[in-house]
Specification:
Elements: H1 8-29, H2 35-41, H3 45-54, E1 57-58, H4 69-72, E2 84-92, E3 96-103, H5 104-114
Helix pairs in contact: 1-5
The structure holds zinc ion (ZN) (2 copies).
Length: 117
């Protein structure tokens, strides 16, 4: 990746990171925040598109991150901080839809890894 500040991938990563940072703060402070409020938080169309697709919910109880780092974002395997802040609904062939708890850095890394390049 170049150091070009106008790279859309970097812009997305920065905005997505800011969004998940707010959510982890919320998760520490209150149980009253809904994923609806989360969606309204961002006006960035790229991020809104990800949130729609992921069908996220905010995690308020203590859960561990279950991100399969080496498969989901092989470029950034060491970033996981283990403390889940959101869950992302994913479809599996065996169990149907399941909720995958994700920590903030993993959510950012997955979002970036899934952007069309
Ligand atoms: Zn991860
Ligand atoms: Zn993680």
């Amino acid at each position: 990746m170049s150091s070009d500040g106008n790279n859309p991938l970097r812009q997305f990563a920065a905005a997505w990171e800011a969004t998940t940072a707010v959510v982890s703060e919320w998760a520490e402070q209150t149980a009253a925040v809904t994923s609806e409020a989360f969606r309204k938080l961002t006006t960035d169309p790229a991020i809104r598109a990800v949130l729609e697709k992921w069908r996220i919910t905010v995690v308020f109880t203590r859960r561990d991150c279950e991100c399969p780092c080496s498969r989901s974002h092989p470029d950034d395997v060491g970033i996981c901080d283990k403390r889940a802040v959101i869950t992302r609904r994913v479809s599996t062939s065996l169990d149907g839809d399941v909720e995958m708890p994700l920590c903030a850095p993993c959510a950012v890394a997955q979002g970036v890894a899934e952007l069309p390049r």
